[in-house]
Design goal:
It contains four helices and four strands, in the order E-H-E-E-H-H-H-E. The chain has one domain: 2-Layer Sandwich (Alpha-Beta Plaits), CATH 3.30.70. Strand 2 and strand 3 form a beta hairpin. The protein is globular and about 40 Å long. The longest helix has 9 residues. A four-stranded antiparallel beta sheet has the order 2-3-1-4. It is α+β, with helices and mostly antiparallel strands.
Amino acid sequence: MTVVKINAITVAPERREEFAQRFAARAGRVEAADGFEGFELLAPNDDRNVCLVVTHWASEEHFQAWVSSADFRAGHAQHRESGPVGTASEVWSFDVLEAVGRED
């Protein structure tokens, strides 16, 4: 069963561009991770300050393997080296009960 992991990160509007640039420059290794199904980086278009990093995984085990991997650590090196862009972060987890496909 597909699982969705959402990292809800509070980012001040004046730092949102830096936030997006860090994701654009990330190692990009998640795409090759076993069980990875998709990624979206969402920024609010209203007065909210929470950006969402949405990933889809074939299973919880696949996600946990990614989080434990050297590729995950490499992809998050900017955060460790330059400090966080966000002021708060919370990871949400969901099982997909129903989905309607769409082509990108």
